[in-house]
Specification:
This protein is mainly alpha-helical. It has two domains: 51 residues, no CATH class; 58 residues, no CATH class. 56% of the residues lie in helices and 0% in strands. The chain contains six helices and no strands. α4 packs parallel to α6.
C-alpha cells in the first residue's frame, strides 16, 4: 500500500526539522528502506524511516489543536497549526499555551478564539508572529 499525502508530508517535515539536505534524505531512504524516492515507500518502509528520524532527534507532534472542519472564508487547519507552532517557538515551549495565544489574538486581532479567525485574519496573525520571531531577543546583542 502506498503512503498517504499526510505521511509524505510528515517525511518532509522530518527532513526539514533534521536539516537533512536532499543527498542525506536520499541516502536515508536507500539505506534504511531500500527505496530511492518516498513514492516507492510502503507502510513498513515509512515506519522504519520514521523510526530512524526519531532516533536522529525528530519528535513528531502529538495530536494538534482542535479541527473546526472545512469552513469557507475561515482559517484552515494548517494555518491554525502554523500559528500554534510559531507561538510555541516564540516562547520556547514544548506545547502551545492556547490560553496565552488566545489572549494575544484577542488583544491584537480582536478574536476571542482561534475558531473565529478568518483566512485574512489568520494570514495577518502569521505575518505578525513571523515578524515577532525575526526580531532580536531582549538582551541579545546583534552585530
Amino acid at each position: 500500500m502506498t503512503l498517504s499525502n499526510s505521511q509524505k508530508a510528515i517525511l518532509h517535515v522530518a527532513k526539514s526539522k533534521l536539516l537533512w539536505d536532499d543527498e542525506t534524505y536520499r541516502m536515508v531512504l536507500v539505506r534504511i528502506a531500500g527505496v530511492t524516492t518516498s513514492k516507492d515507500l510502503d507502510q513498513d518502509g515509512f515506519t522504519v524511516v520514521m523510526g530512524f528520524a526519531e532516533y536522529c532527534g525528530f519528535r513528531p507532534l502529538e495530536k494538534g489543536g482542535p479541527r473546526y472542519g472545512d469552513r469557507p472564508g475561515m482559517a484552515t487547519f494548517a494555518q491554525l497549526e502554523l500559528i500554534r507552532e510559531l507561538w510555541r517557538e516564540l516562547h520556547d515551549q514544548a506545547t502551545c499555551d492556547d490560553e496565552a495565544l488566545t489572549g494575544w489574538l484577542l488583544k491584537y486581532h480582536k478574536v476571542s478564539s482561534m475558531r473565529f479567525l478568518t483566512l485574512e485574519a489568520a494570514r495577518k496573525a502569521i505575518v505578525a508572529l513571523k515578524a515577532w520571531k525575526a526580531r532580536p531577543r531582549h538582551g541579545v546583542k546583534v552585530g
